[in-house]
Design brief:
This protein is an all-beta fold. Helix content is about 0%, strand content about 40%. Strand 7 and strand 8 form a beta hairpin.
């Protein structure tokens, strides 16, 4: 996976920060978006992020996910 790839969420992932369902459990399985970042560094130091892939689904909704939760489309 690389920045700019279109991806789809393949596993059940519950988030609480979706703009239309703020504060409520919302499953994003099946949503499609674009990879906008792969987190490997923070302030020029290497990091080992638990959720390294940042995906933008809509203008207002982004999420950090694992590689195993996504498929390239």
């Amino acid at each position: 996976m690389k920045v700019g790839d279109r991806v789809r969420v393949t596993e059940s992932v519950v988030v609480y920060h979706h703009p239309d369902h703020r504060g409520e459990a919302f499953d994003i399985k099946g949503l499609e978006g674009e990879v906008i970042a792969i987190v490997t560094q923070w302030k020029e130091r290497p990091v080992s992020a638990n959720f390294p892939i940042q995906v933008k689904f809509t203008k207002k909704f982004k999420a950090h996910l694992r590689t195993s939760e996504l498929e390239t489309i």
